[in-house]
Amino acid sequence: MKRSSKWLKVFNGLLSSVLALLGYSCNVLGETPDEYGTPYARYEVKGKVTDKESQAAVEGARVIVKPLDYETGIASPYNNDTVYTDKDGNYLYQKEGGGLERLRVVCEDPSDTYKADSTQVSMNPKGGDGWYQGSDSQIVDFELDKKEP
């Protein structure tokens, strides 16, 4: 009796190892098999930063993209990305990942000539299949007010 239980444990261990190496998944009552992975999408936020009064492009403005917490709507101090405007005042932020439904986009002027501005953007990716949820692109333009002297 002891000998057969020992072989049974060895056989179960080998079978479990083989199934784990093969990535075995369950298919219950014709449903989609369980899969391992993370849903992801492609996100893009682009725009132009200009002087509100003269409509001149603001070169070198700092645009910070902050993901907002799904439940609280508060910007996380982590995972913020920063891009800068070119000589024409244009910027482009691109990211591939999951969980970026709402973003806080902040525009700051490192030269301290203009007041900072921000807005909230909701991303809604479309056109995906499987783990890929699709893509979304939003245009966010900023017209900055000059600071009082």
What would your notes on this structure say?
This protein has two domains: 1-36; 40-144, Immunoglobulin-like (Sandwich), CATH 2.60.40.10. The protein contains one helix and nine strands. The protein has one helix spanning 2-22, and strands spanning 40-51, 62-67, 81-84, 90-97, 102-108, 117-122, 126-129, 132-139, 142-144. β5 and β6 form a beta hairpin. The protein is elongated and about 90 Å long. It starts with a helix and ends in a 5-residue tail after the last strand.
Write a brief caption for the model.
This protein has 1 helix and 9 strands.
List keywords for this structure.
2 domains; Immunoglobulin-like; signal; five-stranded mixed sheet; mainly beta; elongated; CarboxyPept-like_regulatory; 1 helix; Lipo_with_rSAM; lipoprotein; 149 residues
List the helices and strands and how they pair.
Layout: H1 2-22, E1 40-51, E2 62-67, E3 81-84, E4 90-97, E5 102-108, E6 117-122, E7 126-129, E8 132-139, E9 142-144
Parallel strand pairs: 1-8, 1-9
Antiparallel strand pairs: 1-4, 2-3, 2-5, 5-6, 7-8
Radius of gyration: 25 Å
% residues in beta strands: 35-45%
Q: Kindly state the number of beta strands.
A: 9
The helix content, as a percent range, equals 10-25%
CATH level 1 name of the largest domain: Mainly Beta
Largest sheet: 5 strands, mixed
End-to-end Cα distance, whole Å, is 92 Å
Query: How many individual helices?
Result: 1
Instruction: Write down the overall geometry.
Output: elongated
Low-confidence residue ranges: none
CATH topology annotation of the largest domain: Immunoglobulin-like
What sequence of helices (H) and strands (E) makes up the elements? Answer: HEEEEEEEEE
* The CATH superfamily title of the largest domain: Immunoglobulins
Whole-number tally of structural domains: 2
Structural class, by secondary structure, is mainly beta
The CATH architecture assignment of the largest domain turns out to be Sandwich
Average predicted local confidence, pLDDT = 85
